[in-house]
TrEMBL record:
CDD domains: AKR_AKR13A_13D
Upper taxonomic lineage: Bacteria, Bacillati, Actinomycetota, Actinomycetes, Propionibacteriales
Source organism: Nocardioides lentus
Stated name of the protein: Aldo/keto reductase
Keywords per UniProt: Oxidoreductase
Pfam families: Aldo_ket_red (PF00248)
Lineage: superkingdom: Bacteria
InterPro entries assigned: Aldo-Keto_reductase, NAD(P)_OxRdtase_dom_sf, NADP_OxRdtase_dom
Record-annotated NADP-dependent oxidoreductase domain positions: 17-312
Length: 332
C-alpha cells in the first residue's frame, strides 16, 4: 500500500486510501457488526490502515466497533475521530458544540470508547457558529499538549475559518465532501490548503454511492437508508434520474479503462493530489467485497486525457440537487 503524508508540520503518514466507518453503524441501511469487523480487519490486512469514525455515529457505537476491531493492532492504525455534532444516547440531536469544556470531555469519552491512549487525528466535525474558532482550537491544542491527540483537523470549515484555526495551532487536514459530484472547495478552500500546507481528506468520494453504478433508483436502497429521505436531495425526484445519466457516462469511460465506475471515480479523486496538496480519500463501506473493489482504484492510472474526459462527462455544475437538504451546518 502506498502512503501519503497529511499536513506539513510533523506530517502524519497514512495509507493512500482510508476507510470511512460511519455506515457500519448508522444512516446507510441495515447493520451487521460481524461483517463490519471483517471489513476493518481486511482493510488492515491489505494496508488501508487510515480509519475514520466519529462520536456521533451510532451515536457512540461506531467508535466502540472500531476500537474493538483494532484491539491488538493499534500500532498498524492511523485512527481519526471527530467531535462537535452533539447527540444523546437515544440518537436525538443536541446541536453543534465547540465549547472548550465540551471539546475535552468529548475527547476523553472517545478515548474510552476506542480503547486507546491517543487519537492520531482529531477533527472538529462541524464549526460552532456561537464559539470563536480560536477558543475551540485552543482547547484542541491542549489535548495535543496532554498527549491525548497527535494531530488536529477540521471538517466542512470555510477558508476564513481554516486560516483563523491554523493561526492558533497547525491544522493537519480538512475533511470535507469532495468527488466528481461535489467540487465546491476548488475555488476558495483548496488554495488556502495549499498555502498553509494542510491536506485534504475527502469524504463521500463516491457521491454517497451513486458513482459506483450500483444504485439505479431509490428502490435499490434499504427502506431505512437515510439517502431515501429529503436530507439527500440528489437521490430523490427528477434529481436522481439526471444524476444517473452522469453515472452512465462514467460507466462508459470505466469500460474503456477496464475498471468499475467506482474505481474510476476514486482514481479521479486520488489524482487530484499535487506537489502542494496531499489528498487521501476515505470511501466508506461496511462490506469486504466493496472494500476490495475500492482499493482497486489504486491500480487505475489516469492520463491527462482520461482526467479531461471524466470532467467533460461530469461537468462541475451538472449534478442535480444540493448535497444536503439542510446546508445550515456547513461553515460559510
Amino acid at each position: 500500500m502506498d502512503t501519503r503524508n497529511l499536513g506539513s508540520v510533523e506530517p502524519l503518514t497514512v495509507s493512500a486510501l482510508g476507510l470511512g466507518c460511519m455506515g457500519m453503524s448508522e444512516f446507510y441501511g441495515t447493520r451487521d457488526e460481524a461483517e463490519a469487523t471483517r471489513t476493518i480487519h481486511r482493510s488492515l490486512d491489505l494496508g488501508a490502515t487510515f480509519l475514520d469514525t466519529a462520536d456521533m455515529y451510532g451515536p457512540f457505537t461506531n467508535e466502540k466497533l472500531v476500537g474493538a476491531a483494532v484491539a491488538g493492532r493499534r500500532d498498524e492504525v492511523q485512527l481519526a475521530t471527530k467531535f462537535g455534532n452533539e447527540r444523546r444516547a437515544d440518537g436525538s440531536r443536541v446541536g453543534i458544540n465547540g465549547r472548550p469544556e465540551y471539546v475535552k470531555s468529548a475527547c476523553d469519552a472517545s478515548l474510552e470508547r476506542l480503547g486507546v491512549e491517543t487519537i492520531d487525528l482529531y477533527y472538529q466535525h462541524r464549526v460552532d457558529p456561537d464559539v470563536p474558532i480560536e477558543e475551540t482550537v485552543g482547547a484542541m491544542a491542549d489535548l495535543v499538549s496532554a498527549g491525548k491527540v497527535r494531530h488536529l483537523g477540521l471538517s466542512e470549515a470555510s477558508a476564513a475559518t481554516i486560516r483563523r484555526a491554523h493561526a492558533v495551532h497547525p491544522i493537519t487536514a480538512l475533511q470535507t465532501e469532495y468527488s466528481l459530484f461535489t467540487r465546491d472547495l476548488e475555488d476558495d478552500i483548496a488554495p488556502v490548503l495549499r498555502e498553509l500546507g494542510i491536506s485534504l481528506v475527502p469524504y463521500s468520494p463516491l457521491g454517497r454511492g451513486l458513482l459506483t453504478g450500483a444504485i439505479t433508483s431509490p428502490d435499490d436502497l434499504d427502506a431505512e437508508d437515510r439517502r431515501r429521505s429529503e436530507y439527500f436531495p440528489r437521490f430523490s425526484g427528477d434529481n436522481i434520474h439526471a444524476n444517473l445519466r452522469l453515472v452512465e457516462a462514467v460507466r462508459d469511460l470505466a469500460r474503456q479503462k477496464d475498471c468499475t465506475p467506482g474505481q474510476l471515480a476514486l482514481a479521479w479523486v486520488l489524482a487530484q493530489q499535487t506537489t502542494d496538496l496531499s489528498v487521501v480519500p476515505i470511501p466508506g463501506t461496511k462490506r469486504v467485497r466493496y472494500l476490495e473493489e475500492n482499493l482497486g482504484a489504486l491500480d487505475v492510472e489516469l492520463t491527462a486525457d482520461d482526467l479531461a474526459a471524466l470532467e467533460t462527462a461530469v461537468p462541475r455544475d451538472a449534478v442535480a440537487g444540493a448535497r444536503y437538504g439542510d446546508m445550515s451546518s456547513i461553515d460559510a
